[in-house]
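pinned: reference chain
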Amino acid sequence: MKIYEVYATSHKASLSEDPVFVRDGFSLMAALFQPFWFLYYRLWNFALVLIAVHVVLAFIEVSLGVSKNIEICLNLLMFLSVGFFASDAHAWYLRNNGYILLGVVSGNSLPEAQRRFVDNQLQEAV
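pinned: its C-alpha cells
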C-alpha cells in the first residue's frame, strides 16, 4: 500500500477544490528526471540547488581526476538522495505556500487513495 499526504488551501475547501496528494516514499520519477521533476512541481529553488550541486560535483570530478568508480558512486548517491528527498520537498513547499495538511490516506493507487479520502470526508460531514 502507498501512503499519501493530502493538502488543500483550507479545511473547508477539502472537497470543493482539488486537494493535492503527495505520495510518501521513494520517487523513481524524481530520481530519473531530477531537475525536470522539481520544475514540474514548481520547486524552482530546489531545482536550482540541484543543478548547482551537479555542476559542483562535475567540477570536482574533473579537477581532481576522480576515477570512474567514484564518479558512479557519487551519481548513484545523488540518484538515491533525490528519490528519497523529493516528496518531502514537495510537501514542504505546499506547507510553506498556505496549504494545510488535511490528513494521511493509503491506497494501492492514487485513485483508490482519492476515493478513500472523499469517503472519509463525507463520513465526517455526516
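why pinned: The longest strand covers residues 100-107. DSSP finds five helices and three strands in the chain.
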